[in-house]
Every structure is written in C-alpha cells, then in structure tokens.
Amino acid sequence: MKANLLAVLAFAGAMALPGAHAAEPGDGAAAMQAQPAEDYVPSLITDTPLQGRQLAITLVRKTIGSIQRDADAKQRVREKYEEDPALLMQAAAMVTAEFRIIAEANDYWRDRPAAAD
User: Fold this and answer.
1) Dist CA 96 CA 23 (whole Å)
2) Helices (H) and strands (E) in the chain, counts
3) What residue segments make up the domains of the chain, in order of their start?
4) What b-and-e string marks burial along 94-115, b requiring 16 or more CB atoms within 10 Å of the CB?
C-alpha cells in the first residue's frame, strides 16, 4: 500500500510541474485547458492563522480535484483512506505543507492586531 501512495504522490508532484501535462493535439486536453479556471486563491495573505489553515485545506482539495476529476474514482479512494490512519496522516501532511507556505507568506501573523470577537 505504501508503494501505491508513493506512486500517487509522485504523480501529483509531476502534475504540478509546469509543462508536465502539456496537451497533445487531438487529445481533448487543449479544450479542457482553454476553459478559464476559477481563481480561488487571489492571495496567500490571510487575516488569521485559522483563515490560513482553511486556505491550505482548500488548496489541497482543489489540487486533488484537478488531478482526479472522476467523482466515482474519488469516492472509491475516499472509502479506502477514511479507514486507514496512515493515509489520513498523509492527507494531513499535505495540508501542513500548504499551511507552512501560507504562514511564511503572512510572516507567521506577527505584529498583527488581534481580531475583534
């Protein structure tokens, strides 16, 4: 199972590289790329660490959704990992990696006034 997870993560990493999934003529990918993407990340700057964490979760979910577009396949995988603590920890690690980038972009929310409750 560890080998399968590593393969998935390697594929995800390769898909994130610029040009790693360039369209071939006639394969339909060009039409998919022509559609404008929703800008769900206008900025990495957030007001609070909680908003930063929520943004990190959104980034991971959108990344996975971009890689695996088949809803049935996503459901089959979800059924496997929801019962596997090791796979859940891998998902949490992905959120942690995104959150680290967001925290750095926000200078770890130093010297910001406290949010009003």
Assistant:
1) 31
2) 5, 0
3) 69-109
4) bbeebbeebbeebeeeeeeeee
Give the predicted TM-score (pTM) of the model: 0.64
Tens of pLDDT, residue by residue over 36-94, are 678 888 999 999 999 999 999 999 999 998 999 999 998 998 888 889 999 999 999 99
Compute the distance between CA of residue 57 and CA of residue 96 in angstroms, rounded to an integer. 9
Type of residue numbered 21: H
Residue 57 CB-density burial (10 A; 0-12 exposed, 13-18 middle, 19+ buried)? middle
Residue type (1 letter), 16:
A
